Amino acid sequence: MKDPIRSGTYSEESTIGCSNVVQTFVAMMSDAWREFLDAKILYLLVSLIAILFFTVLSGRIDPLPSGRAYLDFSATAMSANLDELDLGKLTLTDIAKEHNGSVYWIVSDRAQGEDHPNSSWQVTLNRTYLPLFAQPENAADIQKRFGNIADVKLWNVREVRETTSGFITRIGFQSWQMTVDPGRDLRLLWPNRFTLFQDSLELTSSKGAPLGLEVFILQKLLTTGLGGSILLLISVAVTAAFVPNMVRKGTLELLLVRPIPRWQILLFKYCGSLLLVAALLGLLIFASWLVTGILADIWTPGVLFALPTLLLFFALLLSVSVLTGVITRSVTSAMLVTVAYWALLFIVGQFHNQVIDSRMREANIGRVKPMAIADSLRGSKSKREEPLRPGRKPFYKTTVGRVSEAIYTVLPHTEDLDNSVDRQLMRDYAVAGPFRALVESTDFSWKRGLGFTLGHTAVFLLSACLIFTRRDP
Amino acid sequence: MVVSIRSLEKNYGKTRALGGVNLEVERGTIFGLLGQNGAGKTTLVKILLGLVSSSAGSASLLDRPVGTFSARREVGYLPEDHRLPEYHTAVSLLHFYGTLQGIPRRERQSRIVYLLEMLGLKGREKLRIRGYSKGMKQRLGLAQALLHRPRVLFLDEPTDGVDPVGRKQIRELLLEEQKRGVTVFVNSHLLGEVEQLCDRVAILRKGLVVLSGSVAELTGLKATWLIGFDQPIPSHFSWNGGTLVPTETPGLLRLQCTEHVSSTGVVQENDLALDEFLAAAGVCGLRLRHLTRERTSLEDLYVALAHDAGDSL
Ligand SMILES: Nc1ncnc2c1ncn2[C@@H]1O[C@H](COP(=O)(O)OP(=O)(O)O)[C@@H](O)[C@H]1O
Ligand SMILES: [Mg+2]
Fold this sequence. Notes:
The complex is a heterodimer. Chain A has helices at residues 21-38, 41-57, 67-78, 92-97, 139-145, 167-170, 186-189, 211-222, 226-239, 242-246, 252-256, 262-296, 306-328, 331-363, 373-378, 399-410, 414-428, 434-440, 446-470; strands spanning 60-63, 102-112, 120-129, 148-149, 152-153, 155-162, 173-182, 191-196, 201-202, 209-210. Chain A is of the alpha+beta class. Chain A folds into two domains: 15-58 and 207-470, no CATH class; 67-188, no CATH class. In chain A, α9 packs antiparallel against α12 (262-296) and α13 (306-328) crosses α14 (331-363). The longest helix of chain A is centred in the middle third of the chain and has 35 residues, at 262-296. In chain B, the strands form three sheets. In chain B, strands 6-7-8-3-9-10 form a six-stranded mixed β-sheet, with helices on both faces. In chain B, strands 2-1-4-5 form a four-stranded antiparallel β-sheet, with helices on one face. The chains are: A alpha+beta, B alpha/beta. At the A-B interface, α1 and α11 of A face α2, α3 and α4 of B. The complex binds adenosine-5'-diphosphate and magnesium ion.
């Protein structure tokens, strides 16, 4: 058989080839892709996540009848001064104490359609007041005020008509006929049942839970919670083998003789693994968004924010794995060290949250504790922060608290990143309460988390490259 | 000169792998580097490829300092005990290495088809390397070394684990490459192979070149004559100008002239010994019927060398 390229003798210029960075990068990428697909554990990953998603997809979210209750809340709220109210801390009962001299109540309601959060209602609203202390209220004011409790929008009043006039108004009684539409936050706060496996497994209590909270928990579970953790754990397990396999004696030489700088080989392999996992994470997060969207018909894109966060976290883990792989050339150590590092970050992160929590509690002793908006609307009792029992130190002043906080300071602040996602989701879904208060506190910074994580990643990678280029194979 | 090495030294910590090697390889030769395990052959090749740094001395490849990209583009390398990534197939692996080498896609494609056919891997090219036998891996290793049509080939134990037919094919392939002007540098401890394949050899022992030259020169060094007489040699016949080794055939014997190669190098062959012997035999009434000159095999030479140096093999 003849060499199809050129038969005959080689001339001086006969050697073919002139490498280019883009092609090298693409080649390393597809190499990583092959190696990744070759790992059997990948199928475990895919099936685990598929099971998770099918479980969630088998679920149903149904609104519980609550229209009258939410109309009542709105009426009650009008009896109070609502300026500068924090619904995350005060309940309707608290609000009722801030009386402004009028009493509003609903006398009749009729849903146009079913009693669910998308229906409009025909409502009759009554008011009594003491004529000496308050003025009659005109329809425009009612339209503006009804359904807005602090910054929460429960209802929009489409049209309103006063049915009382003259004498009756003058002695302190008014009545309006209104048509109200659901407001921006009504759906998110509306109680819903959440069941799995065609109604057979009930996850919520008989009162249901606010839709926003359910979506929040679900999205967290699928992304930065269980779903993301499974994916990252298995990605760590698969990619931990990449570098040790590459720097094996007998394999490494075959790469190092190529006309490419050594650091490129290592860095491109790193990027290849990272892009693969980015694609998988993208898929996971997109699927989470889709699934929660299908289940709850909520399509806010806040959850997509989890992608850069998780990817950044994986970039950090992968750099640890690469460094360990270059130094020890052992798959097992690369895997173990990376998982141990992850565990360290996790534990210290939890302690860090405790420290912040204890600081916040101490600063707020005697004040009303934060609670969920839905609870506060329902009129649950508000609680005050109680002082610690005598002789007990707040967590941040204990030795454990101090040590873990010192460790946290030097570690990449990945907890900040995680909390940033939570904060975004909670804002999107009108979730409030103690945890929201915690993550809203200024101690979490997206920028610092990003900076610290990128910095650590860069240091690990650079060390790996230095060792890799300096050492004899 | 394709390879030019001057007083090259390499220490791995306290281990002295090379202790001042001088070596030159001309263009178009098939050069064999022989030596026992641990002699420093692999180290030498790795230095030439720029994989390992030298401790002292200088080495150049294709008239360029070792390790430059331009030199690397023109060499093919088959490491000893190579382990090809098992998740690849033959085709995907060659495409991978070919891209790193910078071969344009179309040329890569046709070159890969050609090499797989040449090396007898056709039909298995879509199989994962995990399922390859040792010999198949070796052939594939050779394919990746030849892929970018290098001007110099470094092969570290290339026929390790290959069956005899495969060895022959590889030998032919290398001779073919040589015809095209490729320089081949082979590390081996398989002396018979080297003898059949190489033009020139050097023997490395404990990091030093103890002998080098063309194969023809080296194997001709120690003259052995196969001599046949018309009758069995009488028992009283004795001669002390050399060693006589009787064969199983009566009347047929081997004469080894006393001079042999010392570890310092070449010894002139001495045909006088043959003349004296034949004269002595004639006196005894023995008539010459057969005379051929036998060459020493590289193996004999090598063993003699090792013996001189007091090594155990
Ligand atoms: N990476 C290394 N680290 C330490 N010593 C080495 C290394 N590589 C080779 N050596 C030592 O260098 C010497 C020469 O080895 P090598 O070049 O592999 O010999 P050969 O290829 O002839 O068998 C041996 O003594 C070996 O132990
Ligand atoms: Mg060797």
